[in-house]
Amino acid sequence: MKQVSEAAVLRKVIGASSLGTMIEWYDFYIFGMLAKTISTEFFPEGNSTAALLSTLAIFAAGFIVRPFGALFFGRLGDLLGRKSTFLLTLILMGGSTFLIGLVPGYQTIGIAAPLIVLLLRLLQGLALGGEYGGAATYVAEHAPPGKRGYYTSWIQTTATLGLFLALGVIMLVKMNMSDDHFNTEWGGWRYPFWFSIVLVVVSVYIRLKMEESPLFARLKSEGKVVKNPLKESFRKKANFKMVLLALFGAAMGQGVIWYTGQFYAQSFLETKVALNFEQSRSILLWAILLATPFFIVFGWLSDKIGRKWIMLAGMLLGILTYRPIFNTLLTDAGTDQWSMAISNSQVQKETRPLANSNDSLVKTITHIEVSNGATYTREQTDTLHTATGVIAEGKPVIRDKVLPRPVYWKFVGLVFLLIFYVTMVYGPIAAFLVELFPVHIRYTSMSLPYHIGNGVFGGLVPFIGVLLQTTFTEDPMVGLWYPIGIAALSFVIGVVYLSNKIDKDVSD
Fold this sequence. Notes:
By secondary structure, this protein is an alpha+beta fold. The chain contains 21 helices and 5 strands. It has helices spanning 2-33, 35-42, 48-64, 66-80, 82-100, 106-109, 112-140, 148-175, 179-183, 191-208, 214-221, 229-234, 237-271, 277-291, 293-305, 308-331, 405-426, 429-436, 442-458, 461-471, 481-497, and strands at 342-353, 360-370, 375-385, 390-392, 397-402. It starts with a helix and ends in an 11-residue tail after the last helix.
């Protein structure tokens, strides 16, 4: 009877922790999912690339402050307890997300719009910095010996499930309204931000019913709660060495694999492959759905064979296969191979005069259907010099591709592979980090390397990728060198310095 009771408690712990953490990830990621739309609402018109880069910089800012949130809330968690701390982070995250949905656009309040959004984004980053370490520690300190990797892997699913939820909500809203309604200042793109408040209220209600971690409760009852977790974590040579090892040998490589497999993949499909909104998102949704169970598989497997080699294998696969996979995504969606099979096309022309000139701009938009089921739009803007009658042709832009079904499912398979690598590096890492540090400084010590590795090194992948593509335009895959280089460095450090201990005791 006791076993059934303990199992029920553990299910409740995992369920409540995972739900709250998934909602925090949802809140954090809808900003990135809507970056292109947000860039047009919170920044002045005129330079779409600069606006997108500025939006991605605000997105990245949320990642950069995550280590500070890890320090602040980690200290609270080691002083006051796991439960109350990550309850606070949930409220802070949900409130910030809801408020982003209420900020007027640049056309209404000018430069105040991006500044307010930046402030709220920083609050989101601080909150997430405190959430993950608390949830992972809380579950790990409830888990029985020999199953810590398995049980903490449920927490590991929440980041990807939060992304899945964000994509699903955005697509549901987008499919039920026109593009014009979705993209206006107070349009449908705000709905996912407002929906967050409902999720947060439900999760707060559930978390209020949770008990404190038994290991921390025992520590507190024995009067062994450390007075200065930051000093204990980072001034003692042995602990600080473990922090550095966790960061450079595991979390750093894991971070870039995570964000390349999901965020960079989505950005690449939308900006370089030029798929339309629905198809790029649905490919990612299918890949996430198919890959998510492997977080549990690799968490369970790490209880049997150790955490190290599973994580390092995921990094190595990314290093070796990223460029071939992304190159296939690019070439298989190339319109040149479809040009001989065009079955129908519709042409629209728009002419408008240039300001302070007798010349005109002629925009030609061609909607093309291909016999294999693919469609795409070709847009070209030429300049008509009235005095001479000469037309200076502009560079054509291909957008809104819809892939034929066989190619679509091939893309789902390729993105699935990218997320499969994510499950290898991410599934075991919570147990790995928890086992590195003693209970009295665990929340602080594990949170910092995780959020520097995942938040800073990983979170900068989309921004640095777009920046490199903008700088070195001749190579559409130049943005991949950043995650490949970081993962390679982490792989070497991990091979040399990480140990492969299995199921280390976490009660000390």
